[in-house]
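Appendix B, record 7
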Amino acid sequence: MGKIYLHKDMEFYNMEEMDMKEFEEAEELSKKGKNEEAEKIYLKLLKKYPNDKFILHNLGIIYYKLKKYEEAVKIWKFLIEREPNNALFNESLGITYKSIKNLDGALYFLKKAYKLEKSASVCLNLSLVYETLKDYNNALKLVEEAFRRNRDKEYKTKIERIRKRILKISKKRKV
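Structure tokens (predicted):
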């Protein structure tokens, strides 16, 4: 059997072809909402590849979807310790903190992600934290930036809906 090479910490990490198929199966299960099944596969793969960032990140997403926020936080903190300038890991931790109402943590990690990568996703998630904090000026600026940076039609519709909501709330607050 051949090997598939994944990048890991500036080194190349071997993943057996069979393991890669399981990894892809777990991704598909997650897309179908079968998160408990995907979790089992990722945990099995972690026994063989204990520090693989791809497996860990996907497991963090599964834990988030299953509302196992404490486990998700542990994974993303671990990944950020290893790669502090990874925008995706910082964004993921920020989103999780927002979900558990740790707005200081959410703001910190989403701002860090924003400094690293001003993607539509980061802009939108940071905007939502500002909205929760009732900082409508920053929320509006960021949701508009998210709209400009996004290329996906469905995502633009979601962003526009959020932008209208923030505008409506901010106008009521001014009165």
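Remarks on this record: Residues 140 and 167 are 7 Å apart (CA to CA). Confidence is low (pLDDT under 50) at residues 1-12.
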